[in-house]
Batch of 2 targets.
Target 1
Amino acid sequence: MLDLIWIILILILTGIIAGFFAGLLGVGGGFLMVPVQYLLLVDGGIDPTYAIRIAFGTSLAVVFPVSCAAAWAHQKRGAIDWNAALPIGIAGILGGFAGGTLASHLPVEILKVIFGMLVILAAIRMVRGTSASSGGTTRSGLCIWTLTGIIAGLLSGLLGLGGGFILVPMLLFIFKLPIHRAVATSSACILLFSIGGIAAYMFHGAMIEELGRGFLGYIDIFQWVLLTGAMIPLSRVGVATAHRLPSERLKQIFAIMMFGIGIGMIGIFP
């Protein structure tokens, strides 16, 4: 079992790295947080069945304030497309709650395999897909916006991630947003997605008496404080970096990160 000081250092370092990529790529940062949290919880004696749900729930709880900071930084640059962000994000609240509810009942192995395959396919699609439009505001029907939000929100709540890993490619290839605008709009949507997921993990986790003190449902308060404190400042650095990188380079970085997420989630957990 790791000493407390090592646990603190690992969580802070994880928050620093995840926060940077959250701002850079318009994702929640859960792709890094979830595996680290899970391994630390299991090392601390938490049953793996509960540990994976705590990692998902805590990750989403961290995602909310971090996404608020990232979205604010993007908004100051006028990069968020609110015509897409509001309907997608509001629909994603319901999807997030449904996803968190499913995760509270589905076997861990099913979650890992489905998630890994979806993310790998999305990464391949991004690498092989056509370039996104360089246009400005996107306009579409309410039905497609709603469906997009429900799908991304569902996966966000189901797997404890912000949802940007699936939403950014959708904004690129369905709505034809340029990459910088897609990343910024994703950040705004993610903060809404996380609300539904957080509610589900708090509700279902509150019924587990074995968790005891230090938990708010499936949310680990200790991990939440350390990760959030480390991530918020670095998310702003990530945002600034994103707006300095060429579009094609940003797409390449995002695709590589997504491929790593998929491989990791299929094979990292015991």
Note: The mean pLDDT is 81.
Target 2
Amino acid sequence: MRSPTSIRHRVLLSMAGVLLVVVAAAAAIAWAVGVHAAADAYDRSLLDPALALAGSVRGEGAERRLDLSEDARRALLFDDSDTIVFQIRDADGRLLAGEADLRAPPTPAKGGAAFHDIAWRGEPMRVASYRAASGITVLVGETLDKRRRLVHEVLLATLVPALLVATAALVLVWGAVGRALAPLDRVRDQLLQRTAEDLKPLEAGGAPDEVQPAVVALNRLIDRLRHAVESQQRFVADAAHQLRTPLAGLQMQLELLKRRPHAPEIRAELEKMHAATTRTTRLAHQLLALARAERDTEAAGPMKPFDLYRLGDAAARDWTARAIERDVDLGFEIEHANVLGNEVMLRELLGNLIDNAIRYAPAGSVVTVRCGKRGGRPFLAVEDDGPGIPENARAKVFERFYRVEGTPGDGSGLGLAIVREVANRHGATVELGRPASGRGTAVSVVFGSSAGTPAAPA
């Protein structure tokens, strides 16, 4: 559910408030109109029996009486909804007929009529008061059931259309606001679908005038961010590239110096310097590889179809000597599998996986390189029977410069970070597990498609 602070909800809440006020005003007007209509219609009908009763009084003075049969009186005062009562008094206030406790405000002058709201025996009642020319006063009252029903009908006839119109207006406004906010939704979708490395400008086509400044501001921010990232990547790449030459020269000079005879303490220091120089050289090489992997695919080189078997074959030639030096049994189980990718970057990926396995596996370990297809998808995998990666560290080993606590060796913590970046560039996923033996680490890079079908970035 969307946040109640969104523009859509704010507009709808404002519209609902306005419509609520309009409906309430319509209800108040309908109530007033209904009350007036009921009073006007039923007051006239209430005056008719008062006139008829006044005309039915016969005699003079103390002999005056109501000359009306019981059936005629019942017919005159019959109503299927309300109770109707009456009272007739002469000019001296003497009760001639009707209810003695029926009271009303003073009656008008002779020949006039008035209407009042009273309470009779605890029930509200409307009374018509008529004074004849002879001085006779007639009161006819009825309860308010018909009047209330008429008011409710008028109110209902007004409110139902008003509520339907208000509901339809809200639905139409919801759709209209949705169409008006569609450009913002497109901008949101563009941002959500992007990876952290995708810093292309947003498409502002079709955006309304109110949205254009926001899109322009975002594009300017993205442009500045892209320049900053490119500047940082260039700096890292240039620094690593510039360091490689003097470090290579320093390493060569130390190797030449080690060949000469030295005192044991000097030779120990030379060994330390040589090891530190070797680590620094590898770090510079990995920083340069990481900078290349972080750039977009076009900058890193074209994507072409090639066979993963070629990578395994080249790795066998490149890493066998290093494995023998470390007393590691390096084996290869490679099959043909075509992928679409950058061969240089994938060679760097496989090299880092093999280097990690050889570097951290103890002497006498077995490291196996595999490639081929698994479940119809191309894959690269490197397995070892070394100490393995603890479960609680598997989410962190892909972070730059992170090393599992207590891990031996002289690694820099960049190998798996480079593997992840290169895999992301090829739409592949990196999976950590254990070999079938249950001991050690198995790192698999599974590609999303074969050669000829570009892989979507992960």
Note: The two ends are 28 Å apart (CA to CA).
